[in-house]
Amino acid sequence: MSGLPPTTSVKRWFVTTNHKDIGILYTITALFFLLFGGVMALLIRLQLWDPTSQILSGLAYNEAVTAHGLIMVFWFLSPFAFGFANYFVPLQIGADDLAFPRLNALSYWLYLGSGLLLAVSFFQGGTLSAGWTIYAPLNVPMYTPSIGSTGAVLALAMFVTGTTASTVNFLTSIHHSRAEGMGIMDMPMFTWSMLATVWMMLFAFAALLAVGLILAADRVLGSVYFSATEGGSLLWGHLFWFFGHPEVYIVFFPALGVMLELFQTFSGRRLVGRKWVIISICLISVQSFLVWMHHMFLTTINLEIKTLMMATTIGISLPFDLVVFALIYTLIKGRIQFTTPFLFAFGALLLFILGGITGVFLGAIVLDYEFRGTYWVVAHFHYVMFGGATALFGGAYYWFPKITGKMYDEFLGKLHFVIFFIGFNAVYFSMFLGWETPRRVFEYNPEFQIYHQFGTIGAFVLGFSFFIMFYNFAKSYVSGEPAGDNPWDYSRTAEWAVSSPPPLENWPNRPSYASGKLEFVKDYVPDGGPAMKTDDNGDVATDGGDSHSAHISEYPYWDKHPSHASIWPFALSVALGVTLFGFSGFADAVTVELGETAMQSNVVISNAMYPIAIVAGMLGLLYTGVKWGLEDFYAPPSEFAERWPFNGVEKVKLGMWFFLASDVIVFGAFLSAAIFVRYNAGWMTWSPLTESLPGLINTFVLITSSFTVILALVAARRKSRQGLLATLGATILLGFTFMAIKLWEWNHEIFDRGVTISANAHGDPIQASIYYVTTGLHGIHVLLGLVIAIFLFVRAYQGHYLDDERPIEYFGLYWHFVDIVWVFIFPLFYLF
Amino acid sequence: MIDPVILQQGSDWRAQAEVFDEIFFVFLALGTLVGTIVVAYTLWNVYKYRDDGNRSDEEFDAPVVGELPTGQGGPKAKKLFLSFGLSAIVVISLVVYAYGLLLYVEQGPDTGDEGDIEIMVEGYQYGWAYEYPNGHTEREALIVPADQRIDLNITSRDVWHNFGSSDLRIKSDAIPGDYSEVWFAVSSEDVEAQGGEATYRVECFELCGAGHSQMKSQITVLPEDEWEEWYESTGNSSESAGNSSNIGAAGVAAPSGVSA
């Protein structure tokens, strides 16, 4: 898989790893989901037309509400923004591509696959009907029993997996591949917004992944987290909103970034108070993790905490004030051109101002008590999230000429804006007027019918306006005027300095800002050595000892041509999709009848389709994973780049660190869940379920295996193949020892003591669930580590890693991390 | 038997709805004012500085492609901070003002040590059960006397519900395994104004399943003496007559006794 077929070939779109191709795929797929979610919205609006008659059953209405929320928030807003981010962040920072092109393709395919899984869930006895907030315990099978509900939860988990990959990729790219001379404060505002977005995503989506995995365990394996009365409901609330509040900014920030770009481009002014805007954006990103309980003011949280959350909530509104004023003042004394992109960006600002002001209402606890669960909230967050996304449509018009090389139709664009803006306010402002209506209720007080009918008309107008956009884009793509490299008078960012569309590897020569503005410099590339900077005369520059050059020479294949095609991201995603599809029906299709011992237990399979899907999918995962590992795919790091604050860190290592940081949050959430539930059950009423001796032995086993991994790295550096094989082999043996002891322990618990994942002969069932799920998650990490270790072992046997020991080092990082997690698990589950 | 302490009229206590309406009005007035000013100012400037093609190029320093951003501060930064400061003052003072009233809403009016009526409210799919101190359970309506502080202790038997009455401006989550509290009081004037028996809509404000839309109930407020009469007629039996009923949705199991 090396050559990339032309864009006219269907095959290209399955194998491409190029950031621009993937950006296009993201954008188009997201627009598809906009239609999908939009149809759900129109179903809701139709049902709201008349509170006395039903066109949807109660369950169907709930499914429409749930799917609308999930699709719009997860499968439309973020991916739409990430389409632009994929295309333009590398261009704006002067990179050839994202740091990990194959991973980028994987993110996209996981996104598409998860969306298809969600679509399939409608046909598995109905999709999830618990609202996009999926509150517990409505989210457990007792109350939402359909297979499709589980399918939707697993689809969400798959989506989050892809998102995490994307997050790691963007963080590494932005921190590792900025063109020479582009300091972090010099980045264009869209890139800045994306950087803040992905930093928030790294932690927020990890929390969502954790809570999604716990819910999946409840639904597939039978654990009882969210049905537990020992705080199960509140546990969901805390974990979900810890993700959920940053999520608001995660979907809003890319739109804000587009606004910040477009306000400058179409007024000819530079952003006012740029530094302060950046500081505000950073502050908001941090603060977003400190306000989540304002979504839970009516629960039993005590007054002190509510007060604290109220203060942090007001605190987070202040940086937003500054950003809004900066946007407004940027326009003053400009030469404002009312193009379609500007109209959308400006409209977004007006909508966001209204969303922001109504948000302050919600910050006052007394008002929030009343607004909770009403259309005030619905109207507010649509003004903020969809209002913000309005700017993204501006971005679509703004970048359309760059992506296609053709100009869109200005008249149709403006028409779209006018109809969109009228429809938007008709549907969402009417919600403010009828705000006392409870959310997700269709038999509402007939007093408010006039508002809801008005809103329904608005919704259809709003929906219609998008067809003008689709028509405009289709028509312009086929027969639009050629746009040229830079159709805008006052654009500044680097994407406008290359042709439309840009060439595969983006740049004519290496982009550099070293002189204070963008230049394309030609580097001197000696035979058998990496590129070197040249001075004005084209001679090799001798000043400024070049650490970058040393950096690149660590890569043994530095002079290979970069790869742009791989089928494995697609294949891996298919395999994961099949596996998760299998798991969605697992609980219904497979029953385990426990006997006296494991041997006497019986597995009854009532529907073979699901277990077969699991097995086939997992084999597929293993196969594609190995093929991925063996593929000769080369994505070189930028040779000369700004890397603050990670100057000395190699690209893959940096990616590994980001991944582990998100995994810390995943485990953090699992352990917090364990502590939260135990605290609610009465801390001292629980004692360890298991004997501590096997756990203690396992602690020693794991710590020893950490040492052997270090020895493996040492052996690889010394180019000792035997040493490498011996130490890796020892690591694998220790890993299996750990798993064997674990297996014995579980076997003992289940068959000798009657403690299973959903039943506990000696106390609260939830305690058993927590024990199995938490140690099980760790066990899966160990197992995954073992698979990688075996892969490394075989490759080492074939003589690899002696020239380039970095894979051993990065595997070691992961392995150490898994060992450290055990050090936290051990006391919590075995000692106290 | 409950020994009621009559809430004093007038300045001593305010209904939740009154507190809410006051804060809501203040926020709405200021919000509209600030919003109008900001939006009008923005629109005016956008119009004023539109590109009409006949502005001189002097003093216009147009950006060019590939420039590194400058203007991190600039003369407008001062104005930026002034507006930011002003908005911060408005927002913070609004919230501090609202916080003062929050403390009242949290505590409720002081009625002395005894006498408040405490009723357990249990949500279930799809209805509400009200259990009185004498063990009587009511399912059609929450029947309470006027002029008295009523304390509700709210929980759920199955999934997460939210007990709320928009008319009375009270609302609280009903979470399985957890007990949340809310109080309210209705004056006898209000009861008389509604013709001797005041009724208020009760709805569920948290998605709780297929019947969420139909999960309605009501609060009925009777004059003190009428309520006394009714309450005594319920006796100590939870299955008693009066105007209590077993009309709850078909198929809904009788509520198990609620215990704290």
TrEMBL record, chain A:
The chain crosses the membrane at residues 23-44, 65-88, 108-135, 147-172, 192-217, 248-264, 276-297, 309-331, 343-367, 373-399, 411-430, 450-471, 567-587, 607-626, 654-676, 696-716, 723-744, 770-793, 813-831. It is found in: Membrane. InterPro entries: Cyt_c_oxase-like_su1_dom, Cyt_c_oxase-like_su1_sf, Cyt_C_Oxase_1, Cyt_c_Oxase_su1_BS, Cyt_c_oxidase-like_su3, Cyt_c_oxidase_su3-like_sf, Cyt_c_oxidase_su3_a-hlx. It is a multi-pass membrane protein. One of its GO terms (molecular function) is cytochrome-c oxidase activity. Signal peptide: none annotated. GO terms for cellular component: membrane. The keyword Heme applies. Its main location: membrane. Pfam families: COX1, COX3. It comes from the Archaea. Residues 556-832 form the Heme-copper oxidase subunit III family profile domain. SUPFAM superfamilies: Cytochrome c oxidase subunit I-like, Cytochrome c oxidase subunit III-like. PANTHER family: CYTOCHROME C OXIDASE SUBUNIT 1. Belongs to the heme-copper respiratory oxidase family. This is Cytochrome C oxidase subunit I. It comes from Halorubrum distributum JCM 9100. The lineage of its organism: Archaea, Methanobacteriati, Methanobacteriota, Stenosarchaea group, Halobacteria.
Automatic annotation (TrEMBL), chain B:
It is found in: Membrane. Signal peptide: none annotated. Keywords: Copper, Electron transport, Membrane, Metal-binding, Oxidoreductase, Respiratory chain, Transmembrane, Transmembrane helix, Transport. The chain crosses the membrane at residues 23-47, 80-105. GO terms for biological process: ATP synthesis coupled electron transport. GO terms for cellular component: membrane. Its main location: membrane. The keyword Magnesium does not apply. Residues 235-260 have a biased composition (Low complexity). Residues 231-260 are annotated as: Disordered. Residues 141-217 form the Cytochrome oxidase subunit II copper A binding domain. It is a multi-pass membrane protein. InterPro entries: CcO_II (IPR045187), CcO_II-like_C (IPR002429), Cupredoxin (IPR008972), Cyt_c_oxidase_su2 (IPR014222). One of its GO terms (molecular function) is copper ion binding. It holds the Pfam family COX2. It comes from the Archaea. Its EC number is 1.9.3.1. Belongs to the cytochrome c oxidase subunit 2 family. This is Cytochrome c oxidase subunit II. It comes from Halorubrum distributum.
